[in-house]
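Researcher: Structure for this, please.
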Amino acid sequence: MKNLFKKVLLLMVLSASAVYAQVKSVTVPSHSVPKQPIIIQGPMPIEAQNLAARLENVREERTGNYIFYIGALEGYPVIVTKTSKGMENTAAATAIAIERFKPAAIINQGTSGGHDKSLNVGDIVLGKRTFNAGNFKTLTRNEKEGSNPFEWLPMDVMASEGSAGEGTDAEKVRYYEGNPMLLKAANAVKSQYKRGKVVEGTVASANFWNNEIDRINWLHEEFGSSVEEMEAASAALICEAYKVPFLTVRVLSNNKTNGGKYDPSTAKDCQDYVEKIVKEYIKMLEK
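Model: Predicted structure, token format:
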């Protein structure tokens, strides 16, 4: 009886093994955490499309005034955004990008006008600081008493939830610092930029085109501005709100303080350099 039981048990085990051997299967590997994209912003087509053309496997998404070129650089997800010009467009494009794509960092880049006589057309300023050069509070003057812009006070609209004009708590300039890791990446590759020199400086942003040398000098002397443009500070404000690392990179396309004439070809040179920054930053992220 024992021998019979053993034989039956052995047959059952062999039958089960045969059935198991015949079952087809597939193994699904576990997924790693998706890489967060790096976003590069450019206001005008000449400040965005050159870099967008270098992305791999590009697809476009459009919303409002904005185009997102979604692709990769050397396999890492990168999105180039044409934000359109101005503070409002850039703020909106930045908020949409952060909500939609959850970026690891944002680089705002493009052309600018020089405020520093020592900088020439083709030089690049890395935004160690960025500020809104359109936020001012005038002094009280009665009718027929005129206006004196050199007396205007900086106005920090983020100082409180209350009125920025009443009281004195907002009478200061707010500087947004460039992210140290992005600055490190930018400085690591600056020797590869051949059109001009690369320096750290202060970027002034406003929906304002300054042609008055005295006003340009006033902004430079009072607030340390190296260049002016129309986008970076609004992107910096939104990035700060969402805690996203930010840096602006601006090439001088003209400089009225030393007679430097407008040269739109600088936009491509800036994008060439920013591509190198992004690749260096990717190396740092993947260490």
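Researcher: Any notable elements?
Model: The first strand starts at residue 38 and ends at 42. The mean pLDDT is 93.
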